[in-house]
Write a structure and sequence with these properties.
DNA-binding, mainly alpha, 3-stranded antiparallel sheet, homodimer, Arc Repressor Mutant, subunit A
Chain lengths: ~140, ~140
DNA sequence: ATTTTATATGCTTGAAATCGCATATAAGCA
DNA sequence: TGCTTATATGCGATTTCAAGCATATAAAAT
């Protein structure tokens, strides 16, 4: 598949568009657990969809210790970078706005601009990947 | 599915993107058989994909006698109209040029700006919907 | 070293999308 | 009316895709 079709296909999924939205609204690197908390979806889903977005050339990943941060691919063509910027400004539907709000709350937990906690309560339970640390916070 | 995801999904298919490209490059109404000849794909495929694009709110159809013409949906939001325009300019620089060239050849067969023939030779054979009129031209 | 935590991935299942073919519908024409 | 042509659509077969669950990997912490 050529690149444009691949990019559209990647964005043609509700969850992946929500993920892209998170990055478009904040314009910085976001780590996986932060997205898990923002969208309240199981961790494996987030991971898989991020992989698809990455393979489409929309995102890049970089590991920092245990955490993996994703950002918009800054090596993609100017056209697609601009396109995504403009798209970000037009995702005004409530769902997208809510996601972004929840992400901002979650980002408040950072220290020195770094993510320092995994996913928390509600999502953790849903994931059954609930950590002991998160359990204590219940 | 929300609208943006729906539109992206529709464009996330090679054939449908090629169809959209035809309309973007010529910026006028194109009828089904002309697209069949431009893309050299079976008529039923073209029809089905056009329906999907129409349902996504990207295209509009209008029948004129036996022929059905498709055009970009001019009732869609300003954002999506602009977006498609910009996309068209981008696709022009990439592949998709051959399709557009073939379409232009095909459009040369029009009379008074109207399509007056069905699909012709090569494509017609592939379709097994070969008309007697087209057969004579072989 | 062992355990804990963050992230990724293999596998199965069900749903959805696509294709190919046949045929239906709609409209013009003899 | 009956035939021809343009377009659409129903259906079965095949493929693609996402969800769900379990588990693997990678890196820290104890």
């Amino acid at each position: 598949m050529n690149k444009p079709a691949k990019i559209f296909k990647a964005l043609g999924d509700e969850t992946r568009l929500r993920l892209a939205n998170l990055l478009l609204q904040t314009d910085r690197e976001i780590c996986v657990c932060e997205m898990v908390d923002a969208l309240e979806l199981p961790q494996y889903q987030i991971s898989k969809h991020l992989t698809i977005l990455k393979n489409a050339g929309i995102l890049q990943a970089s590991r920092k210790g245990t955490w993996v941060y994703y950002r918009l691919d800054d090596e993609s063509s100017p056209f697609w970078r601009d396109f995504l910027k403009v798209l970000g400004r037009h995702l005004k539907q409530q769902a997208f706005v809510d996601d972004a709000a929840k992400l901002r709350q979650r980002l408040a937990l950072r220290q020195n601009g770094q993510c320092v906690v995994g996913f928390v309560a509600a999502t953790a339970i849903k994931n059954k990947f609930r950590t002991k640390k998160a359990a204590k916070n219940l």
